[in-house]
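Fold this: Right handed beta helix domain-containing protein
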Amino acid sequence: MRRHPAALAAALVTVALGALLTPKATAAPAPRVLHVAPHGSGDTCGAARPCSPTAARDAARDIADRDVRIELADGTYELTRPLELGEADSGRAGRTVTWTAAPGADPVLSGGREIEGWRRNRDGTWTATAPEGVAPRQLFVDGRRAQRARGAACPAATCDATKDGMTGAIASGAAAWQRPTGAEAVIKVRWRDYHCRVTGVEGDNLTFAQPCWANSASGTDRTGPAWDSTTVDSARYHGVAYFENARELLDEPGEFVWDTVDRTVTYLPRAGENPRRARMVTPVTERLMVIDGAHDVRVDGIDFAYAAYRQPGTDEGYAGTQAGLTLTGASGPVDHAGRYYTKPSAALTVRGGRQVTVTRAEFTHLAGAGVILEAGTKDSSVTRSRFMDLSSGAAYIGDTEPDPEPALAGERNTLAYNTIRRTGVEYTDSVGIWAGYEAELSVDHNTLEELPYSGISVGWGWNQPEARESVLRDNRVTANRITDVMRVEHDQHDGGAIYTQGAQPRTLVAGNYINRSAYGNTERDGNGIYLDEQSSHIRVEGNVLTRLGYKWVSNWADYGIQNHATGNWTDTDAPALTGTGSTMKDNRTELDRLPAEALAVAGRAGARPEPVEQLRPDLARAGTASQSSTDGAAGAAYAVDGDTSTDTRTLAEPGAWWQVDLGAARRVRQVEVWNGAAMTTADFDVQLSRTADFADATTRHVEGKALRPTLLEFAGGDTARFVRIRLTGTGRVGLAHVLVHP
């Protein structure tokens, strides 16, 4: 279409006038960069004259027109008090204040103090005097954790605990120790861990610091639900796991003792260590960074190391309740829902934060926890960070109040793509990630490995009346890789790789890979996904779960309702979900090989791609099982049904046996023997034979009880058609599972 020249001219004038009247878009100003160094000084904070972290914080408060980057140079920042950031240290008008590593730098905020002046003793130990104000509870030798000197276990028959104290001072050796009041008793009861200091020895009796011992015993009306039976004076107490920190117990390389009277640390070096040449560090400063009421703050690429956790070294001790929380104080409100339990100290604490981002951080060699987000922290995240060698758990998110004021409710927080390994080193009841009463929480693509108890715990309150209605809702635990948790040597029970409590409408547990939870256990215990107590309205979908000590999904309580498990893959089975309206549908169970789809799901889980441990083919699955006798309905076939929650059982008789006929001679490389629910099978032979009379049998003897499982390797690959488990004495054979691998 042709336009009239006059109209064209008018249009050009309009465009030109519009261009003159429209303001030009301006680029946002470049961030202001403040430079920090370990020994920085002054308030210039320039590249040539860097300042200290606190000076940079104060200088940033005067910058309101742009983003601020506070860049930390390489090196260790030895803190005697936390770096505290408050509301005044927030980003303003949509801008962000970023605390970050300078390009190529690896800055470390450290609460450690080096112990020097070591002198060698005649017995091969080394001793140094601790600086004033330093009470070493942990010691790290060139970054490697030393262990407080510990003794052997003391069974309940000897170390009999009551609400007032304990017997066993003579048999345990405590009565003969030069300074028994520097020692502690470490006690594990089911899912709880207790550490209380000895305060006196009189004859065969021991007394302990208060309120630690009272808070570890029954009768306070504050130790948990009314049914609780996991205190030190309960029927479930089975003795002291070990006493620690007495000079007489120092007998293994890598152990140390702290003497509070002489103020000395004594260490027995490992091979090749020389304390005069090594860097001997103990945590002293309790918190390294505290962000309180700040918003739009980013912490990027900064490491946290050697933060202290002082409470266990006081008369409060460590009266563990669940998941690394403790009961403190000599008195308090009557409470059965854990509302007043105390979280551990953490290297980085965020209180009431908004849009606080922690990324690419490293938390190592800590005496307590890594990160806490609490007191109404919202829209905040911890991502792509690493947690390793922590005395307590990695991350604690939220609080224990079921119905907080809106400003104190935790909402829309995220933990994603983090790696958590070897946490709970000292306080073995702690978990990798704990979340209390949170809403819209995302725990996604994290890797958790080598943990003493549960991996991820979301929810609180058991089934107590004050906790039945809460702010819990819309949480997501997705695509996490959780392997080698609930490790048997730590003697913590009744947990799971993923553990939940409380009614959580629209909560999803999906796409997680769980392998080896309570594997090799000493009892039928340890779950994959544990919907405990009042867990309700939770969907468990598309998870891959293998090599579990007990159930792949557990929902035992009838007051947990409307839980649904669908489309999961697992090598065992579990009883139907108990709660009202709960369902299990389209799950692929009793597998002896993971299909390609399951391998793909497992391979996508975690902070980074890693190999998936494929299941091994089971020759016994297609075999014919028999046993020497049958007690009731506990037939021999239950051991080859692919389900570790069903059991065989013979009568008690001399040489009782169970066996499977593989149908043809096969080369056998490994046999897995899973003890039954009652853990009755003990002192037995595993025999492989080509013939039914076992005349040519290869025999391996197992002393003591079978585990879940006990593994027997036949490295040469013995040829056998028959596999038999036979008692060498009199008793029963009870088995949950027997697998025969080619």
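The chain has a mean pLDDT of 95. The longest helix spans residues 5-21.
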